Amino acid sequence: MTRRVWIALALGAALAGPLAAQEADTSPTEKPTEKQCLPDVGCVTNLPLPRYVSLKGSEGNARRGPGLTHRIDWVFTRAGMPLKITAEYENWRRVEDFEGAGGWVHYSLLSGVRTVQVTLDMAEFHDAPEDGSTVVAQAEIGVLGRVQACTADWCRIALDGARGWVRKSAIWGVKPDETIE
Questions:
Q1: What is the CA radius of gyration of the chain?
Q2: Spatial separation of the C-alpha atoms in residues 140 and 55, rounded to whole Å
Q3: For FRET with 160, which of 1, 4, 10, 76 sits at 20 to 30 Å CA-CA?
Q4: How far apart are alpha carbons 109 and 59 in whole angstroms?
Q5: Residue ranges of the domains in the chain?
Q6: Are 92 and 61 in contact (CB under 8 A)?
Q7: 3-state class of 23 per DSSP?
Q8: For 28, which DSSP code?
Q9: To the nearest whole percent, how much of the chain has pLDDT over 70?
């Protein structure tokens, strides 16, 4: 080895030593902190979790994980279907349907329009939020409706051509304590 090469190698090692020591001495407080998420709030949107949305189109793939490389476990095939968002990761939302089936769906497939699914056979829709009021419609299990308003125990729902108040216990797609104006 020539003298010049040996000097260059020795000089490089001498310079690298102090730099490596400085990097090793960095304290944990100097490292960038990761974003801390609250338990009931989405880290991406800062909206409450869980929350309800609806399927925007007539088809939406629910994947095993948040990304196109994950396999499709479920396909939602009903436009307007209410879904519950339980987690967020970048552009992906983990959702569940009425039966608990679901997975990770791209946010562009979801709508903020609030819908509900009837869960009680022949659920009665009233003209006022009172049990003694006139029944204006009945709906079978699985019928979808659009939420117009909710009080503590009742929701006003728009069905195909009919509107009425239904007890929250007969629908899925709103929280029990949720009010919507």
A1: 27
A2: 20
A3: 76
A4: 8
A5: 51-112, 116-172
A6: no
A7: helix
A8: G
A9: 81
126: which strand partners?
135, 165
Cα–Cα nearest to 165, from 107, 180, 177: 180
| Alpha helices (runs of H) in 25-152, residue ranges in sequence order | none
The CATH number of 116-172 is 2.30.30.40
Residue whose C-alpha is closest to residue 149's, from 135, 131, 164: 164
**Per residue in 89-140, pLDDT tens?**
999 999 999 999 999 999 999 999 999 999 999 999 999 999 999 999 999 9
3-state secondary structure of 110: strand
Indicate if the pLDDT at residue 48 is higher than 60. yes
Specify the 3-state DSSP secondary structure of 7: helix
Residues in the chain: 181
51-112: CATH, from 3.40.50.740, 2.40.320.10, 2.30.30.40, 3.20.20.190: 2.30.30.40
| Sheet containing strand 163-167, strands side by side | 135-139, 123-126, 163-167, 154-158, 144-150, 115-118, 171-172
**How many helices (H) does the chain have, and how many strands (E)?**
1, 14
